[in-house]
Write a structure and sequence with these properties.
By secondary structure, the chain is of the alpha/beta class. It has a domain at 95-307: Vaccinia Virus protein VP39 (Rossmann fold, 3-Layer(aba) Sandwich). It has helices at 8-18, 20-30, 47-55, 83-86, 95-104, 121-129, 146-155, 205-225, 245-254; strands spanning 37-40, 60-61, 70-74, 90-93, 111-114, 135-140, 161-165, 178-184, 226-236, 259-262, 270-271, 275-276, 279-280, 289-291, 300-307. The strands form three sheets. Strands 5, 6, 7, 8, 9, 10, 11, 14 and 15 form a nine-stranded mixed β-sheet that branches. Strands 2-3-1-4 form a four-stranded antiparallel β-sheet. Strands 12-13 form a two-stranded antiparallel ribbon.
């Protein structure tokens, strides 16, 4: 049973925060596999054209799919061996991975920072939304992850992106003001399906506090470089409130009157939970989204915020 692979401490806290029914659903879904999701590279193709080309080769897709994606239903051979994949006409990713970039929705010609960029799938989608214009600063701390970032940008035909190997918390040292920031923050990953996140079996509560502190520091440093009326997306693939609703609640408290939490354009999931056991959070948290690990998605939290005053 999946309950035997997850710490009882986590199961108990999910029950306290989400209730017994949702916790039961979380446990059932974490053990399942997600389908392969294709995101067309709209710089060079369309969803319709890509689907037609692949169906002519024997691939089959679900009749309905969100976020301009294709949900793979049958593959006669490994789809990464197709000319379409090798020439960068699509990426393979989870549905939740499409939400941060599409929610940020940067305008053409803007300056954007992706603060935890590798392997670059979200970076590529940002570039697509910007029509390869403007500038993206793709920052990645781990040097060993840079080759994957470079490879994906090259394969997808992205040329508006500057790769920086460094800690995102040092971004202010570059003295670059940006219009938009994507912070898909390092986290415990407790919302990921077990086949993707073997570390979930070894997670302890101290991991939550450690990641929450890093996320806090990254948010604070990012905030310094965001222009007035610029926007930032904060997201994690975590089910823990300290890495989601509570993190944003504390961020709002530290910058009172400076932040507006904007509604997410996608209605997937539910509004962020403003009740944390015996504490009521800022009402703006309702504009965040909490996604549970079902419907072909990982567990996820996302907040879209505007800097209304420095």
């Amino acid at each position: 049973m999946i309950e035997k692979t997850i710490s009882r401490e986590f199961i108990k806290r999910w029950g306290n925060f989400y209730g017994r029914n949702i916790t039961g659903r979380i446990l059932r879904e974490l053990g399942k596999s997600d389908p392969r999701i294709l995101a067309p590279n709209t710089l060079y193709t369309s969803k319709r054209q890509l689907q037609e080309n692949l169906e002519n080769q024997g691939f089959r897709f679900a009749t309905e799919s969100p976020f301009n994606s294709l949900i793979l239903d049958f593959e006669p051979y490994n789809i990464v061996a197709t000319t379409e994949y090798l020439s960068g006409l699509f990426t393979i990713q989870s549905l939740t991975s499409l939400i941060p970039s599409k929610s940020l929705n940067p305008s053409h010609g803007s300056v954007v920072a992706d603060l935890a960029a590798s392997p670059g799938i979200k970076t590529c989608l940002l570039a697509e939304l910007m029509k390869n214009t403007g500038t993206i600063y793709a920052i990645e701390k781990a040097k060993k992850r840079i080759p994957a970032l470079k490879a994906n940008l090259a394969r997808m035909g992205i040329y508006n992106t500057v790769i920086l190997n460094g800690d995102a918390r040092s971004f202010p040292d570059l003295n670059i003001e940006v219009d938009h920031i994507l912070l898909d923050a390092p986290c415990t990953g407790t919302g990921l399906k077990l086949r993707k996140n073997k570390r979930l079996e070894r997670r302890v509560l101290n991991d939550v506090n450690r990641h929450a502190q890093t996320q806090r520091e990254m948010l604070e440093e990012a905030w310094k470089q965001l222009k007035n009326h610029g926007t930032i997306v904060y997201s994690t693939c975590s089910l823990e409130p300290e890495e989601g609703e509570v993190q944003i609640n504390n961020f709002l408290a530290r910058h009172e009157g400076q932040i507006q939490v904007l509604p997410i354009g996608f209605k997937t999931g539910i509004p962020g939970n403003i009740t944390r056991w015996d504490e009521t959070l800022d009402s703006q948290i309702r504009n965040t989204r909490r996604i549970f690990p079902d419907q072909g998605m990982d567990g996820f939290f996302i907040a879209l915020m505007e800097k209304v005053r420095a």
